[in-house]
Amino acid sequence: MIVHFEPASAEGIASVVRSAAAERVTLAIVGGGTRSGLGNPVRTDRTLSTRRLSGIVSYNPAEMTMSALAGTPLAEIEAALRAKGQMLSFEPMDHRPIFATSGEPTIGGVFAANVSGPRRYVAGAARDSLLGVRFVNGAGEMIKAGGRVMKNVTGLDLVKLMAGSYGTLGILTEVTFKVLPIPPAAATVVVSGLNDAEAAAAMAETMAQPVEASGAAHLPESVRGRFLDGALPDGAATVLRLEGLTDSVDLRAEKLTAALSRLGPVSRLDAEATRLLWAEIRDVKPYADGTRRPLWRVSVAPSAGHQLVAALRLQTGVDAFYDWQGGLVWLRMEADAEAELVRRYVSALGGGHASLVRAADDVRAGVPAFEPQAPAVAQLTERIRARFDPARIFNPGRMAANA
Amino acid sequence: MPEMIGFLKAKQAVLDRRQEIVADLKDLLPKGCLISEERELKPFETDAFLAYRQVPLAVALPETTEQVAAVLKYCSRYGVPVVPRGAGTSLSGGAIPQEDAVVIGLSKMSRILDIDLFNRTATVQAGVTNLNISEAVSADGFFYAPDPSSQLACTIGGNIGMNSGGAHCLKYGVTTNNLLGVKMVLFDGTVIELGGKALDAAGYDLLGLVCGSEGQLGIVTEATVRLIAKPEGARPVLFGFASSEAAGACVADVIGAGIIPVAMEFMDKPAIEICEAFAHAGYPLDVEALLIVEVEGSEAEMDAMLQRIIEVARRHGVTTIRECQSALEAALIWKGRKSAFGATGRIADYICMDGTVPLSQLSHVLRKTGEIVAGYGLRVANVFHAGDGNMHPLILYNINDPEDAARAEAAGNDILKLCVDAGGCLTGEHGVGIEKRDLMLHQYSRADLSQQMAARAAFDPEWILNPSKVFPLEGRPAA
Q1: Which residue of chain B has the CA closest to A250?
Q2: Rounded CA separation A169/A12 (Å)
Q3: What is chain B's Cα-based Rg?
Q4: A352 and B260 in contact by Cβ < 8 A?
Q5: Is A372 near chain B, with CB under 8 Å?
Q6: To the nearest 10°, the Cα dihedral for B330, B335, B338, B344?
Q7: H or E element, residue B76
Q8: Cβ contacts of residue B360 below 8 Å, gap of 6+?
Q9: Which residues of chain A are within 8 Å of residue B432 when distances are taken between CB atoms?
Q10: Is the ipTM of this complex over 0.85?
Q11: What is the pLDDT of residues B104-125, one digit of tens each?
Q12: Per-residue pLDDT reduced to its tens digit, A330-385
């Protein structure tokens, strides 16, 4: 990656952007570059990195908020939080294993791509933790939105709009986000031997109980052995995470075990195994295989996930596992990306979002990475883009032809 | 004396065509769905922000998304401003109409369309009340989490418009964190859908932008929201303190200790007296400040968490700890809290502030708030969501005394500026509406506001939708 601009301040970024906009020079916006495979491939005149814009600006553990410059390494942030017994509740995934990239993910990149992990289905995505942003828009103006308090409805919520906009609306320079205490105890209840449909039902049943599961994933037999170095019990593993005070976790684990033991053998993982397992689920370990075989991340209603996989299996070679109570499907295709098929079935099953996370270059060139939008929504997207980045110099085409 | 808040000047061309507009809209709607008689328009002239009122040109009460679309298409074509309205419980004047506007009320769209317990979602029309959703799924062990105090009356459409919060948001988040999808009508009648039962959607987070946009980006007609399994049990506990500062500091320390109760509500002495007189909830009357802390889970879990909270409270010299003994008692405790605004309304007129501050500033802001209000010769009662720093000073005054009203408004403005200067914001859950519109420049720069207005213009280029609200009237882009 050739970096052409590496300003050390927000003012520096604004000044680069103003000249670029005047000369219609397109810019690829990068942080650590570990997730640059997300979205459509982008060809730009120059690259602008936020890497030198680094450092925690303020951290008040008693207020559960932190502000950091966008280029701050995620590792630095997580270490500072851990030292005070806190964490990012949305568990941002590390994309390096599946992309085989190196370098340091930045906090700006996490929010720009709205990167979230297993706890997302109960604790919200990165966007739900983001309280405030500072960014440089396409005219080179420095804009702030949101703030540093938990509740804030003052004006339009541009914070949400910036989260997950992949650098196409502005360059994040500073982010303020909510953090949560690390739960003192954690355990995972494992139900073994369920098929995908049975697992979906077991996960839904778990979520209907007052046990506050903070993770619900299903790891079919084809992938089960890739987790915890093969230490999970035989058969497909339906895994349910419980977190909180020690006594409470034990109580809830017993309650859940009693409820689910009619379905199959039930076992339990301790805190350390729980931590490892959910990090591996978060980082999609089975498909971090050093290949570029097509990998889809599909978000659907939890009841539709296993139906999607069953339908695809009749037509093509596919391997899959499930997170978010079955509503997040990681699909690895054996050969072809089968974009048309995947998206047709997602739509037939009530809709959702199939994004092509990884594929060979020639495949990525021909398949929109993100789910194509309805025409009226695409028009809105285009109008918003035009009002944030009128010269269309930021990551053009990253999200869609018009964004 | 500060100037009263202004509305946009009514468009004479629209007022001149009033009869024609009314006749045309009648043609677009079923019988009985258009109100145009002065006497019948009266109930729509204001909302729960009683300080201002304006009778609208007409009120449309459509029964379907298609009818909403037809009215919007017509209004945008002829440049007629539109003010959306749910139950009219806005505390910031979000639903107050203007003379040349057609109000689109969603009250007839009040059907629950789909309850999907497997996927834990409810899809409802925008006019369904907040509490109706929880009631519809309660027997199955679920609830809808955001719980504004007006939840008996307020609609989900209004909640989305204001990104409403409530007492239990400390643990479960506000509307935007619990909203999965909407069907909405854009200014020109185009119907779009954003989100759905899947957690992620492609493209920009338009759902996040729409939530809290105060009816300026379109009119939501249907919503899909997240349901949550009800906890095994919940128990509110009362903690009394000898001073507001001690109670405020206790709140910050509970959170700082990594304890997040499901709710943590604050009342000062005036608020306690007002609420107790109304609800007979058994609040202690011999304390200066009261925290209602709710814990939930199994008996053992509640006991464990409570124990930790009590330890922190003792460090702040808690004088009274009262655990409720029955479900009835718990219900009364919450009834008292949730009726706070109504109960206050029985003894005086009031304006309710809604600034949010960082927890470390709670004590400081509480003290300064008292000083500010006293400085204007008025009284204040504080009752608010302390756990997330969302303050609600109620400034008591006499609405029939213009000087008193002006002083109350001035005191309110000073308090909101205090919140912003303490690192907080103007409004945590009630919205900007007209009430706080002219203070926006205290929190944002011109460039910040221009960027927000640019996003707004992408949805409503001609400023048809609720145009007098949120953004200061000066400095707007030329339409």
Answers
A1: B301
A2: 18
A3: 22
A4: no
A5: yes
A6: -130
A7: helix B65-77
A8: A60, A62, A63, B252
A9: 153-155
A10: yes
A11: 999 999 999 999 999 999 999 9
A12: 999 999 999 999 999 999 999 999 999 999 999 999 999 999 999 999 999 999 99
Structure tokens at B445: 């720069």
Token output for B105: 């009320």
Q: How far is CA B7 from CA A7, B93, B101, B268, B437, in A?
A: 44, 11, 12, 35, 11
Find out whether A327 and B121 touch, Cβ atoms under 8 Å.
no
User: Which residues are registered as beta bridge partners of A347?
Assistant: none
Give the closest-approach CA distance of A328 to chain B in angstroms. Answer: 8
- Amino acid, res. A303: S
Contact B223, B195 (CB under 8 A): no
Please give the span between the terminal C-alpha atoms of chain B, in angstroms, as a whole number.
32
Would the CB atoms of A210 and B141 count as touching at under 8 Å?
yes
Contact B217, B459 (CB under 8 A): yes
Please tell me the distance from the alpha carbon of residue B465 to that of residue A166, in angstroms, as a whole number.
29
Report the sign of the C-alpha dihedral through residues B161, B165, B171, B172, in that order: negative
Assign B235 to helix, strand or coil: strand
A1-5: list long-range contacts, CB under 8 Å, 24+ apart: A1/A30, A1/A33, A1/A36, A1/A47, A2/A47, A3/A30, A3/A47, A3/A48, A3/A49, A3/A51, A4/A46, A4/A47, A4/A48, A5/A46, A5/A47, A5/A48, A5/A49
- Per the CB < 8 A criterion, the answer to whether B180 and B226 are in contact is yes
Taking phi over 0 as left and psi of -120 to 50 as alpha, with beta for the rest, A167 belongs to: left
Edge-to-edge strand list for the sheet holding B393-397: B320-323, B234-241, B289-296, B263-268, B379-385, B393-397, B349-352
Q: Which of B451, B452, B471 to mutate to test the interface with A (most CBs of A within 10 A)?
A: B451
Short-list B86, B164, B161, B77, CA closest to B129: B86
Binary contact (B301, A114; C-beta < 8 A) = no
Chain A residues whose beta carbon lies within 8 Å of the beta carbon of residue B160: none
Pairing relation of β-strands A65-69 and B34-35? unpaired
Residue B48 main-chain phi, psi, to 5 deg: -85, 0
- The single-letter code of the amino acid at B77 is R
Q: What does pTM read for this prediction?
A: 0.96
Which of B226, B194, B211, B221 shows the shortest CA–CA distance to B125? B221
- Chain B CB contacts of A155 under 8 Å are 432, 440, 443-444, 449, 452, 470-471
Q: Is B236 left (phi over 0), alpha (psi -120 to 50) or beta?
A: beta
Contacts of B191 in chain A (CB under 8 A): 376
Comparing CA positions, the residue from B458, B473, B448, B432 lying closest to residue B213 is B432
Nearest to residue B51, comparing CAs of B477, B398, B437, B447?
A: B398
Using alpha carbons only, give the angle B162, B165, B168 rounded to the nearest 5 degrees.
165
- Bridging pattern class, strands A318-323 and A328-333: antiparallel
What is the DSSP code (8-state) at residue B150?
A: T
B297:A143 CB<8 A: no
Q: Does residue A36 sit in helix, strand or coil?
A: coil
Contacts of B272 (CB under 8 A, 6+ apart): B283, B284, B285, B287, B290
Q: Give the strand order in the sheet containing A237-244.
A: A266-269, A185-192, A237-244, A213-219, A318-323, A328-333, A295-299, A353-358
Compute the distance between CA of residue B392 and CA of residue B322 in angstroms, rounded to an integer.
Answer: 24
A161 CB-near residues (< 8 Å, 6+ apart): A169, A384, B204, B205, B206, B208, B209, B455
What are the pLDDT digits (tens) for B426-436? Answer: 999 999 999 99
Per-residue pLDDT reduced to its tens digit, B409-452: 999 999 999 999 999 999 999 999 999 999 999 999 999 999 99
Taking each helix axis from N to C end, the angle separating B269-279 and B340-347, rounded to the nearest 10 degrees, works out to: 90
List of long-range contacts for A308-311, beta carbons under 8 Å, 24+ apart? A308/A342, A308/A345, A308/A346, A308/A349, A309/A196, A310/A196, A310/A197, A311/A345, A311/A349
CA distance A342 to chain B (A): 15
Q: Please tell me the predicted confidence (pLDDT) of residue A309.
A: 98
